[in-house]
Amino acid sequence: MNTHQRTVAHLDTITQLVAQAHDADAVMRAVDLACAELIGHQLFTIMVVHHQTMEVERLYSNMPDSYPVAGRKRKRATWWGEHVVERGEAFLGTGAADLEKAFADHVLIKSLGLGCVLNMPLVLRGKTCGTMNLLHAGDHYHHAHVPLARVLAHAMMPIFLTPISDS
Question: What is the CATH number for 45?
Fold first, then answer.
């Protein structure tokens, strides 16, 4: 199967899971698998944005020992919060300086052998309702990864429609 066929197969699986609307975890696992195969990652998390408190809350993590589900991070008055949450722009961070600028937990990130990040905001009607976060070793991510990451992230948008009204 070529890359195009694998991409379509993953998107079809995600779409079918979203249509069933029974298990948000199954949707997030399917997006995790698609991103792992098509983009690559070592750490993969999905966060919901709570606008009233300007916090992000982890809904999914492939490394729950280091990054547990339900963990929250305050993003008010941070560069990352302005860039990703307020403006709805993807963040591509490569190297220690980018990680230190964006994340208070940069020491933990580095201790896991991670050196780059791709944060993809999930934006609906101009409002960021969540983020999909991929981290990898070295200098793995490039601007060419952003369009596919955006498509995969937004394929799971329906699971955010209920939380967006509560945030």
Answer: 3.30.450.40
3-state secondary structure (DSSP) of residue 121: strand
Q: How far apart (Å, rounded) are the C-alpha atoms in residues 99 and 118?
A: 11
DSSP 157: G
* Domain count within the chain: 1
Closest CA to 76 of 67, 85, 68: 85
3-state percent breakdown (helix, strand, coil) of the chain, nearest 5: 45, 25, 30
pLDDT, one tens digit per residue, over 45-94 is 999 999 899 899 999 999 999 999 987 888 777 889 899 999 999 999 99
HSE-up of residue 39 (Cα within 13 Å, Cβ side)? 33
Contact 39, 24 (CB under 8 A): no
Q: What is the DSSP letter of 14?
A: H
- Give the residue numbers spanning the domain of 86: 3-166
Q: Can you give the pTM of this predicted structure?
A: 0.91
For residue 107, the 8-state DSSP code is H
Which token pair is 112? Answer: 């896991």
